[in-house]
């Protein structure tokens, strides 16, 4: 197009330098004055209803009395709107909610800002946000008599988080030290009871059935049978991928099952009676710890009949 | 006094700045209704617009250039949707000393732009809020609508109900040559929960004009005049916390006073999808009533003309002989604060 027909455009902004000066009158003025002092007040209508924030007359044209009533500060949330991505003019730069808030002792509500904590931009509304939530004002340190003297409303305290830490030095005892010493060499050791003949892995140094000390050491292989198991869908630091299977494995030659992970097989294929073998971590990673055994994996052997394991569940 | 809508014209509404000024958007449709009726002068002229959309005081005065205001004409303006200008013209015609009136509204919200280039319309509309309790909070139009949507959902409704309104509006809008061509609702994230972008009317530039006439003059000017059988508007508390946001009592009352019953088509000024549902309930519109077949404001929302377009669309069904009795609704203020209902009949 010829230059004379080029469309012109320019930025334009509209502002009132210094802002508008407004008289607030005796009703709104009283509210803002009390607000500056950290109090919420409503005004009583002729019917006895307490209107909050105060207005010169209620919605039905009913007159108000000159009686101001302290309300709140506890408020109940009515309708609410979750702002996951605040706009430039919004009061908070992180996600927050708008809410209709009715202070205790008032019959009408005010719109204000609800600060439910720190959320990343775009976050979904937290489950705590709901009608009926109880909240209180967070006052600004320096107040001037505007609706913004309340920075936001925050939920009542219903939970606290109290970190606890206590230090210990635990001793494994003789039997467990001996057992873990064996694990550190790739051997699985147990004790046989001199009375009942059962083999306990790991050994405790006594037979819990007969109540007698045990000393006869027995080495058992790292193969065994799944007696029962669970499929876990909640991640665990030791098994971050879900689902994972934890199982009772009865090592061959022992009489007590140990808890272990079962892997190398889809969770849905694990079954009672399944034959498994320990998978050891590389020898250079071994210490005197059960984590030397990574988990158990299936052996290509027929399942053990239920009757043979039914006493070990 | 029988008063009818005898002519209606609207722009092909635009979803972005066309480079035209407000007057350039308006002028062609003023010409269109003049040509349609053969009228060059009107007994009364009334317009609806919003100075804040242009950022200039008395911006409506320059729009009078589109009418031709010399020699001096009898003219008025409302700083509201032009549906209220139509109401003023209707009342003026009831006096009986004139027999025609021109009503128009226009808006160019696309020029309301934040420094970051995004639309500043939600914030601009907040300038209509009270300066003590609401405006200083930074409360924007969409946030307020979301509060109302939540209040409505709390009554037992589902977000899918809102989506269905948006989907129907957009589909109807695509069939309306004057509305915007908007896709079906996608899997949009929330704008302000519980509202998603498709639940909110699009930024739209446009204008509309209507000619009203009385009695025999109306019959001369139009083959099938759309007679105004009732018109009423009601307002309720400005404070959002002083009313039940999940319902619209002022719409119910305006509807009763205007005789809103037995209508076949209803054009509702719903700028957010939940508003249509609240308005349907307030007006007692059954499933047999066709609501917003034009696509409604969710398919084109030229602010300050949107309400007047509802009247024009409702009248169109009667002009074309496709309906006997229709309803138009217009709204103004936050969360359906003020509502106008107009019932038209063949
Ligand atoms: Zn001229």
TrEMBL record, chain A:
Q: Report which superkingdom the organism of origin falls in.
A: Bacteria
Enumerate the InterPro entries for this protein: ChsH2_C (IPR002878), NA-bd_OB-fold (IPR012340), Thioester_dehydratase-like (IPR052513)
What SUPFAM superfamilies does the database record attribute to this sequence?
Nucleic acid-binding proteins (SSF50249)
ChsH2 C-terminal OB-fold domain mapped to chain residues: 217-281
User: Gene3D superfamilies, per this entry?
Assistant: 6.10.30.10
Q: What is this protein called?
A: ChsH2 C-terminal OB-fold domain-containing protein
Q: Tell me the organism.
A: Actinoallomurus bryophytorum
Q: What is the lineage of its organism?
A: Bacteria, Bacillati, Actinomycetota, Actinomycetes, Streptosporangiales
From TrEMBL, chain B:
Q: Which UniProt keywords apply?
A: Transferase
User: InterPro entries recorded for this chain?
Assistant: Thiolase-like (IPR016039)
Transferase found in the keyword field:
yes
Q: Which SUPFAM superfamilies match?
A: Thiolase-like (SSF53901)
Any one GO molecular-function label of the UniProt entry: acyltransferase activity
Protein name (record): Acetyl-CoA acetyltransferase
């Amino acid at each position: 197009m010829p230059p004379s027909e080029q469309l012109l455009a320019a930025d334009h902004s509209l502002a009132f330098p210094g802002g508008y000066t407004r008289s607030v009158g005796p009703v709104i003025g009283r509210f803002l004055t009390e607000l500056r002092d950290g109090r919420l007040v409503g005004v009583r209508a002729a019917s006895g209803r307490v209107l909050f924030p105060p207005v010169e007359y209620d919605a039905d044209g009913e007159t108000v009395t000159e009686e101001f009533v302290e309300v709140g500060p506890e408020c109940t949330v009515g309708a609410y709107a979750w702002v996951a991505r605040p706009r430039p003019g919004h009061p908070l730069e992180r996600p927050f909610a708008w809410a209709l808030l009715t202070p205790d002792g008032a019959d009408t509500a005010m719109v204000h800002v609800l600060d439910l904590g720190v959320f990343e931009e775009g976050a979904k509304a937290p489950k705590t946000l709901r009608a009926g939530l109880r909240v209180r004002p967070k006052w600004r340190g320096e107040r001037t008599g505007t609706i913004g003297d309340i920075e936001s409303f925050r939920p009542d305290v219903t939970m606290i988080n109290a970190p606890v830490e206590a230090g210990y030095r635990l001793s494994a005892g003789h039997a467990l030290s001996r057992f873990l010493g064996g694990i550190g060499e790739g051997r699985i050791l147990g004790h046989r009871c001199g009375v009942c003949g059962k083999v306990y892995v790991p050994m405790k140094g006594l037979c819990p059935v007969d109540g007698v000390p045990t000393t006869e050491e027995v080495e058992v292989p790292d193969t065994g049978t799944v007696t029962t198991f669970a499929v876990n869908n909640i991640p665990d630091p030791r098994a971050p991928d879900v689902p994972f299977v934890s199982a009772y494995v009865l090592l061959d030659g022992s009489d007590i099952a140990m808890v272990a992970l079962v892997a190398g097989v889809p969770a849905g294929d694990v079954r009672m009676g399944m034959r498994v073998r320990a998978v050891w971590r590389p020898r250079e990673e071994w210490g005197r710890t059960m984590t030397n055994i990574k988990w158990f994996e299936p052996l290509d052997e027929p399942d053990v009949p239920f009757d043979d394991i039914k006493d070990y569940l | 006094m029988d008063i009818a809508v005898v002519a209606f014209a609207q722009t092909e509404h635009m979803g972005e700045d066309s480079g035209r000024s407000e007057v350039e958007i308006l002028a062609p449709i003023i010409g269109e209704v003049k040509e349609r009726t053969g009228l060059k002068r009107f007994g009364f002229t009334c317009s609806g617009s919003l100075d804040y959309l242009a950022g200039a005081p008395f911006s409506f005065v320059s729009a009078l250039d589109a009418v031709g205001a010399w020699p001096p004409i009898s003219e008025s303006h409302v700083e509201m949707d032009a549906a209220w200008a139509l109401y003023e013209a209707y009342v003026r015609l009831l006096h009986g000393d004139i027999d025609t009136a021109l009503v128009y509204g226009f808006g160019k919200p696309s020029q309301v732009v934040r420094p970051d280039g995004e639309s500043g319309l939600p914030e601009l509309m907040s300038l209509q809020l009270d300066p003590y309790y609401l405006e200083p909070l930074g409360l924007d139009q969409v946030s307020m609508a979301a509060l109302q949507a939540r209040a409505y959902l709390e009554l037992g409704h589902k977000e899918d109900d809102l989506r269905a309104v948006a989907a129907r509006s957009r589909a109807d809008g695509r069939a309306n040559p004057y509305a915007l061509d908007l896709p079906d609702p996608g899997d949009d994230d929330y704008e302000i929960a519980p509202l998603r972008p498709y639940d909110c009317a699009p930024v739209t530039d446009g204008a509309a004009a209507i000619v009203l006439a009385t009695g025999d003059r109306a019959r001369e000017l139009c083959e099938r005049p759309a007679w105004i059988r009732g018109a009423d508007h009601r307002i309720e508390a400005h404070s959002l916390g002083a009313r039940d946001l999940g319902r619209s009592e002022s719409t119910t009352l305006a509807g009763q006073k205007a005789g809103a019953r037995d209508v076949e088509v209803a054009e509702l000024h719903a700028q957010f999808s939940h508003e249509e549902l609240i308005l349907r309930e307030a007006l007692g519109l059954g499933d047999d009533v066709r609501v917003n077949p034009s696509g409604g404001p969710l398919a084109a929302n030229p602010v300050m003309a949107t309400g007047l377009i509802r009247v024009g669309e409702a009248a169109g069904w009667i002009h074309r002989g496709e309906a006997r009795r229709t309803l138009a609704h217009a709204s103004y203020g936050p969360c359906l604060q003020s509502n106008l209902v107009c019932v038209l009949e063949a």
